[in-house]
Amino acid sequence: MLFPEYRPRRLREKESFRRMIRETALSVDDFILPLFAVEGKGIKKPIEPLPGQFHLSCDNLVKVVKEAADLNIPAVMLFGLPGKKDPLGTQAYAADGIVQKAIKTVKDALPDMTVLTDVCLCQYTDHGHCGMVDKGTVDNDATLDLLARTALSHVKAGADMVAPSDMMDGRIAEIRGTLDDEGYSHIPIMSYAVKYASSFYGPFRSAADSTPQFGDRRSYQMDPANALEAVREATMDVEEGADIIMVKPALPYLDILARLKQEIDLPLAAYNVSGEYAMIKAAEMMGWVDGIKVIMETLLSIKRAGADTILTYAAMEAARELDK
């Protein structure tokens, strides 16, 4: 089709035309809101690198989740900051751990809110790595049992879905087997299957107090240069029992998201991570961009690339904008 026979501007002329032929649409149903739970009471402490986000004690966490529910956001993802850390991250799987308490508090107050939990050890270990460390190296196989114990403790506390983010080989099979053996075969797993060793995690590591105390995470998170590896990782997790596959971060890896949409026959999640969000907020505070417009365009691009659900710190802002 060539000009002048084809004039695409004809269907851009009126807002009604643009609405009629719009290929991608955002919905509040697309969003999962990440939240940070901390020990204590009456705490709502701003997270400096994540404007508009807070460390929340359970009483204030419930208030924020209630606000999210009032905006029809269907789910929240809980992260926890423990009161103490140790080499084995024991607070990650303790029955009275911060995430376990947060789950119970939210489900007691809002039983219809879907609660997902991040399953990892980095916030709970004193070395900041996502697994057991032996002689300066993260021990993959020794970590699997601890991850499964963590996932099981979350489910026993009332979590509706668990989301392993550690990137240990074989952890989906280990968690699936443990949940099934304990009578929780109905609980789905959202796998951080394609998690890159990204520079966009900085604000989160500050918020979660999870910066590694030595080395980095490149020995278990993916090389940003690799695409075929993403297909292999996702395929492996599907075969091990994952129900949703996640790509993290979102924006630098939209090509990966689009590729997996063609390759993987499961719902796809994308994590609009802390660095992506923080850059928009910083530019907004400087007056360089219209923050909400950039947020909505960003989320639309993630949806267009193939995401069925989006984890985003901007969930409530976007929900309010969609409600206008």
TrEMBL record:
Zn(2+) binds at residues 120, 122, 130. GO terms for cellular component: cytosol. Its EC number is 4.2.1.24. GO terms for molecular function: porphobilinogen synthase activity; zinc ion binding. GO terms for biological process: protoporphyrinogen IX biosynthetic process. The keyword Repeat does not apply. Pathway: Porphyrin-containing compound metabolism; protoporphyrin-IX biosynthesis; coproporphyrinogen-III from 5-aminolevulinate: step 1/4. The active site is at residues 195, 248. The keyword Nuclease does not apply. PROSITE patterns: D_ALA_DEHYDRATASE. Keywords: Heme biosynthesis, Lyase, Magnesium, Metal-binding, Porphyrin biosynthesis, Zinc. CDD domains: ALAD_PBGS (cd00384). Pfam families: ALAD. Mg(2+) binds at residue 233. It catalyses: 2 5-aminolevulinate = porphobilinogen + 2 H2O + H(+). Belongs to the ALAD family. Homooctamer. This is Delta-aminolevulinic acid dehydratase.
